[in-house]
Each structure stands twice: as C-alpha cells, then as structure tokens.
Design goal:
With 228 residues, this protein is α+β, with helices and mostly antiparallel strands. It has helices spanning 2-5, 11-32, 37-44, 50-55, 65-77, 85-111, 117-142, 145-148, and strands at residues 160-165, 174-179, 185-192, 204-211, 214-219. Helix 2 runs antiparallel to helix 6 and helix 6 crosses helix 7.
Length: 228
C-alpha cells in the first residue's frame, strides 16, 4: 500500500490527503485553545472579493450580470458561505485524493500501468465537485440553523449593500455586496426601484424588494441605513 502511495503518479492525491489530515489536526489543536480553525477560515471568507477582482479585467469598465452569474451560482451551489468552509475544504481534499487514487488503482489492476497524476487529476476533480455538494447539503440539513448560519435571500430585503460592479440601471442589474446578520458577505444582482435612477460602483443602496434573482433597491440616504 505504501509503495502504491509513494508512486510519483499518485503524488497529487497523496498530498491532498496529507493536507486534509493536517487541517483536521490543526482544527483539533486550535479547539484546545478556544479558537477553531473553521471559525477563523469562515471569518476570512468574506474578505475574498473575487467578483471585484474579475471586474478589473472588464475592458469597458462595467461588470455585466452574465459574466458573474455562473461563478456566483456555482459557489452557491457548493454552499460556500452557508456551511463551515473547513467542511467543504476537507471534503474536497478527501474526495480528490481518494477518487484519484481509486482511478490509478483501477488502471494498475486493469492494464498494469498508471497515468501521470496531472491527467488523472481532471476526472478526479470532476468527481470531487459533486462530493463537495453532497457533503455541504448534508451538513446544511443536519446542523442547527444557528450553527450553519444559513440565511435565506428573502431576508436580505431591508439590508444595505454597496455596488461593486458596473452601473445599476432599470432592466440592467449590477452586482452588489451586502452583509447578513451573521456578518457574512453575499453578492446579489440589483437594479433601481425607480426607472429614472441609476447607481454607480461604490454607491450605497437599500434592498426593498426581491424580484426573482434580482433585488430592487433605492438610495441608502439615511445615515442610519448606511453600512459601516
């Protein structure tokens, strides 16, 4: 078994499992001092302004809904931000490592050779994505709502947000970032409630209504409404 794991073709998958073990050990040690690694990672997660990063590559200076929708939808599908990020990370590392080793093991038994790890990594990655989804869905169902800090998009109505990509106009939504009651960041598409209004990048807005996947917003003019 050790000889199989030490094969150069299996390096990617062996490292993945080793990193998973390290994360689990760090989580256990961090809990002994009262601060879980999972909590630290969850607190760091809202700082990843990946959508803002993509916006810098838009040549016309505007970030349209189709360019960010698939990414936001994919992360939401994986339950990123709704279950502890360490759970998703460990499930990814474990799934990637086990699926990769399983593929190599089948190949070795069937044809007597193994493929380079970088080639096997592609099907292993594709097989890992649904594993992460299933784990996230399971955790979301079995953990109390207070522990998962899961929120419904309907609860975003009444919260303030900042426009982070493009210009929001009527029938032309733009991306905005808000923080829920747990302090987690969420990215939503917004458009002005008033057809004559528009909101630029950096403007503060108040979500007043949800219309399918887009929120109607008004200017957050009151100082008490503006997010600090």
């Amino acid at each position: 078994m050790l000889e199989f794991l030490n094969q150069s073709q299996n390096t990617l998958f062996t490292i993945s499992l080793l990193v998973m073990v390290v994360f689990c050990l760090l989580e256990g040690l961090s809990l002994l001092v009262g601060v879980g690694l999972s909590q630290v990672l969850d607190n760091l997660l809202p700082d990843f302004d990946f959508l803002d990063f993509e916006a810098e590559f838009e040549l016309d200076g505007e970030l349209e809904a189709p360019s960010v929708g698939p990414l936001v939808g994919f992360l939401d599908w994986l339950h990123v931000g709704r279950v502890p990020i360490l759970v998703l990370l460990v499930s990814f590392l474990t799934g990637f490592g086990i699926i990769g080793l399983a593929i190599q093991g089948v190949l070795q038994l069937a044809v007597g050779v193994m493929l380079p790890g970088i080639i096997v990594a592609v099907p292993a990655l594709l097989g890992t994505i649904p594993v992460v989804r299933v784990v996230g869905s399971t955790v979301l169902r079995i953990m109390p709502e207070d522990d998962t800090e899961a929120v419904s998009e309907a609860s975003f109505v009444g919260l303030t947000a900042v426009i982070t990509g493009g210009t929001a106009r009527h029938a032309k939504p733009a991306q905005a970032r808000l923080k829920d009651t747990f302090g987690h960041s969420h990215y939503v598409m917004v458009e002005p409630d008033n057809e004559d209004e528009s909101f630029e990048r950096g403007d503060m807005v108040l979500l007043v209504e949800r219309r399918s996947a887009v929120f109607s917003v008004i200017a957050a003019t009151s100082e008490g409404l503006v997010e600090e």
